[in-house]
Amino acid sequence: MKKIAFILALVMVFAVALVACDETPAESSNPATESTPVENESTPVESTPDEESVPAESTPDESVPEEESEVPAAEVGELVSVGKTYTTSDLFRQSSETWGWDENYPVAYPDEDGVSLTDGVKDPGDSDYKNVVWAGFNGNGTPDFMENGYSWIVIDLGAVTEISKISVYTGSEALGSGIASNNMTVEFLVSDDGENWTSLGTVATEDNASVNFVETTIGTTASGQYVRVQLTRTGWMFVSEVEVYDIAK
Ligand SMILES: [Ca+2]
Fold first, then answer.
1. Are residues 133 and 221 in the same domain?
2. How much distance in Å is there from the Cα of 137 to the middle of ligand 1?
């Protein structure tokens, strides 16, 4: 009986050992769950370069507009053309008596005193083309226009000037009688001696019938004592003012 009991004890020991061996593989399945943290670790690894690249790209983007915003801050200086003398190609000249006496405009509009283009007044205040603020050029056929293809205005600034901006103010479609600023170009030129000219460029003039005059401007730095504007249009061109700015003042 002792032998039988001993054998049974051995069988039980083996049985316990087998159960223990079966449980071990069950624990070995845990590494499958351990692989999950491995994947989780790779996720922040991938997100890290994304987070780093975003601020790296945004930094230069923010610096560009700051540099560009400094460019328009340049000043054009002072208006120096007011009161300066000028000459023109043939203005259309017609006395008030010729086109019918008008008590509101007893002086004929075509700049008979030779001062209206640099007197500082560019706004006629109404839409009547007879307003004395205007000087009229006939692009349909005055002799000078027919010869050159344009009308011109030359302002003598009195001394060589560091020019930063030139503007021309022309009558709009609101004036009627075929006067308008559409289909019109203005060429801007400068000179030291009034004979040899350098063109700064040609600008197309846009019309705006809701106002009495429109502004055409060129903003280019240039040096010269004389400023010349050449007006081209098939039709009437009315001018109230030419402005020149000196960036050195
Ligand atoms: Ca004027």
1. yes
2. 15
